[in-house]
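quick q for whoever's on today - can somebody do inverse folding on this one?? i tried earlier but teh output was garbage lol. tokens:
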């Protein structure tokens, strides 16, 4: 398992009973997590949460605030900084377990012998974009949501990286890749964090089980002749890391050789010493 163990501004304090308790800077949030199926020992730290997200039986949910909080606040990882805030979908705008991928990409880019161009697809609020820009890469950041693209821009400037060569594009990622193929544009590395289901800005449908393989296959056409890496991250329930490994083996491995690794991502739980599973990844890298 790839475990994000080097955070200072984030901590998974405890988990159980279908919930997790997290410290984001100085703020403690209590949120649902369906993978925390073991019993909850509700100690005092749980009762002192600053806010709690309650699911609704009819779908969605709402936050209950035990004390007034800023609309958003800043957490940092190494020299990267992010705005976080409780959203209506229980999320905060940041997935701290992704630090394992940020660190890996930073090392790959810094050790490259040539300038690196990275394409970040389904790029959300820009964690991978910031990491790659910080490492010195030129980055193209693509997401279908105008709001999260704006959030990513703010994170870039917050991290002092506003002058780095980063393009932010609000678009359906599949259509964007098709246009890049026609334009003849290429990238040394591609990062993607595809959702289980999704819609583009014009109602385009995405379903991971149906569209991931042909999408990855189409991305081969926009890779340079000697690409550096290709990363797929997923939170889709029921998808094994081996599935992602196989997708990369039949596309990147077949075309470029290289090395493929895959596995679960996790976060250490302070109270119990257990590890909270938090998605899967597969990485292709040149050898």
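ok took a stab at it. sequence:
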């Amino acid at each position: 398992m790839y475990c994000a163990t080097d955070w200072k501004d984030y901590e998974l304090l405890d988990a159980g009973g279908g919930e997790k308790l997290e410290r984001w800077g100085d703020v403690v949030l209590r949120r649902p997590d369906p993978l925390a199926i073991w019993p909850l020992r509700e100690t005092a730290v749980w009762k002192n949460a600053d806010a709690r997200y309650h699911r609704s039986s009819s779908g969605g949910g709402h936050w209950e605030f035990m004390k007034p909080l800023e609309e958003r606040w800043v957490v940092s990882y190494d020299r990267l900084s992010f705005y976080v805030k409780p959203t209506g979908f229980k999320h905060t705008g940041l997935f701290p377990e992704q630090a394992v991928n940020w660190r890996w990409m930073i090392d790959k880019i810094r050790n490259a012998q040539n300038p690196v161009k990275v394409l970040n697809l389904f790029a959300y609020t820009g964690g991978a974009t910031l990491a790659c820009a910080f490492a010195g890469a030129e980055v193209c950041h693509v997401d279908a949501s105008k709001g999260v693209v704006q959030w990513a821009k703010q994170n870039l400037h917050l991290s002092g990286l506003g002058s780095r060569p980063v393009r932010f594009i609000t678009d359906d990622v599949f259509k964007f890749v098709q246009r890049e193929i026609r334009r003849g544009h290429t990238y040394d590395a591609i990062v993607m964090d595809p959702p289980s289901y999704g819609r583009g800005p014009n109602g385009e449908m995405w379903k991971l089980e149906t569209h991931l393989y042909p999408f990855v296959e189409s991305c081969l056409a926009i890779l340079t002749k000697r690409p550096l890496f290709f990363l797929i991250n997923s939170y889709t329930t029921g998808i094994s890391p081996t599935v992602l490994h196989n997708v990369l083996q039949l596309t990147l491995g077949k075309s470029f050789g290289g090395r493929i690794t895959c596995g679960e991502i996790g976060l250490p739980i302070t109270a119990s010493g257990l590890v909270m599973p938090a998605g899967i990844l597969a990485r292709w890298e040149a050898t």
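fwiw The longest strand covers residues 275-285. also DSSP finds seven helices and 17 strands in the chain. so keep that in mind when u check it
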